[in-house]
């Protein structure tokens, strides 16, 4: 095996950073205002700009997406059990646990990799109060079927939409489904504020409740009305978000080109299954996952090692399942037999690099390594 140590490491993703000159006027405004946090003018400006860009009415900004998830559950006063997916970043389940709620894992659909509605319904008990699905890789869940289930059993629905910035389903923002949707603006995301997040909710009254909860439950100078937390986004984060938003369409177009080229060159490789986007959905190309099936010459882990040895920092995302971590593997719903599809997907998934600055030459290098492995000639790759 040849290790191409001269090449720079190629990450799965990199934060898109706009020209510094565009950011500096906002910093000057912050210094001039002497208002650095606590519901400042740039915070309000970004909320309004995001509502317009995303096609939603009510959005509340947070310092990070995990605090937004925790607060969403608090705002809806969820107790008992919440049905969720084991195939996600661990923050999804941690937010449930931090609220003293029992997470209940249900299996995923083998194509979308999102929660399987049939398995959601099978997991409902008298203690179930909510469903927390994830739009995995920005691919929308079966929101209509999940809504029918929630209505039938009188359940709340909170979508973890960390990957779903700008995604639409049948011409409607995917963030408008459910009782709430929670976004992440972490540096690895399509739109980011260094760190950050947001809750999209249905009405102004709920937004006011969320805004109080993220500010310690403070209603006014002398009144605290709830057990809140410090989840506020500061003005520097908001300023960076305003700059980022000016470039997000450009970044999305670059990701779309990278996605299309991967599909063109890898779409017919035996043993590789490319992630399929649901009909009627407008993707954001947040990730490029492939499934390395038994028909491929190497296992997923062996392909991972080959690419890593050549400085391609691919990720097995999401592996292992959340249900396999010691914090959660004692739950009855975490049993492998309850999650056969998720178990298989977690053993096969590999995310290839996709970010706006990924050059075609570097992408060709990544693809050529995969093709060489597929042809069992990996030692010939330079």
TrEMBL record:
GO process annotations (BP): polysaccharide biosynthetic process
Coiled-coil regions, chain positions: none
Record's keyword terms, sorted: Aminotransferase, Pyridoxal phosphate, Transferase
Xref: SUPFAM superfamilies: PLP-dependent transferases (SSF53383)
Keyword Repeat: no
Modified residues (N6-(pyridoxal phosphate)lysine): 189
Superkingdom of source: Bacteria
Family note: Belongs to the DegT/DnrJ/EryC1 family.
Name of the molecule in the record: dTDP-4-amino-4,6-dideoxy-D-glucose transaminase
Species the sequence originates in: Paraburkholderia caffeinitolerans
């Amino acid at each position: 095996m040849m290790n191409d140590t001269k090449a720079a490491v190629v990450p799965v993703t990199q934060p898109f950073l706009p020209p510094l000159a565009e950011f500096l006027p906002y910093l000057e405004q912050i210094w001039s205002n002497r208002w650095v946090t606590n519901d400042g003018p740039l915070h309000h400006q970004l909320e309004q700009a995001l509502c317009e860009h995303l096609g939603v009415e009510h959005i509340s900004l947070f310092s990070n997406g995990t605090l937004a998830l925790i607060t969403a559950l608090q705002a809806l006063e969820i107790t008992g059990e919440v049905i969720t997916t084991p195939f996600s970043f661990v923050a999804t389940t941690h937010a449930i646990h931090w609220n003293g709620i029992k997470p209940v894992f249900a299996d995923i659909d083998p194509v979308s990799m999102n929660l399987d509605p049939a398995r959601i319904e099978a997991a409902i008990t008298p203690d179930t109060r909510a469903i927390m699905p994830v739009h995995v890789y920005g691919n929308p869940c079966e929101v209509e079927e999940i809504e029918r289930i929630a209505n039938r059993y009188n359940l709340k629905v909170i979508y973890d939409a960390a990957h779903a910035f700008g995604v639409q389903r049948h011409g409607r923002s995917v963030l408008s489904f459910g009782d709430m949707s929670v976004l992440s603006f972490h540096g690895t995301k399509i739109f980011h504020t260094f760190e950050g997040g947001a809750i999209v909710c249905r009405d102004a009254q709920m937004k006011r409740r969320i805004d109080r909860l993220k500010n310690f439950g403070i209603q006014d100078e002398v009144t605290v009305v709830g057990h809140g937390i410090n989840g506020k986004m500061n003005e520097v984060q908001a300023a960076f978000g305003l700059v980022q938003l000016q470039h997000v369409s450009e970044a999305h177009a670059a990701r779309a080109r990278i996605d299309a080229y991967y599909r063109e060159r890898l779409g017919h490789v035996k043993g590789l299954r490319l992630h399929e986007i649901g009909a009627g959905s407008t993707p954001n190309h947040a990730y490029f996952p492939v499934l390395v099936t038994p028909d491929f010459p190497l296992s997923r882990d062996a392909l991972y090692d080959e690419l890593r040895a050549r400085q391609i920092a691919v990720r097995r995302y999401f592996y292992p399942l959340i249900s396999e971590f010691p914090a959660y593997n004692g739950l009855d719903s975490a049993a492998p037999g309850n999650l056969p599809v998720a178990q298989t997907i977690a053993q096969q998934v590999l995310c290839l690099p996709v970010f706006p600055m990924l050059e075609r030459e570097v992408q060709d290098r990544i693809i050529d390594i995969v093709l060489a492995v597929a042809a069992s000639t990996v030692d010939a790759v330079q």
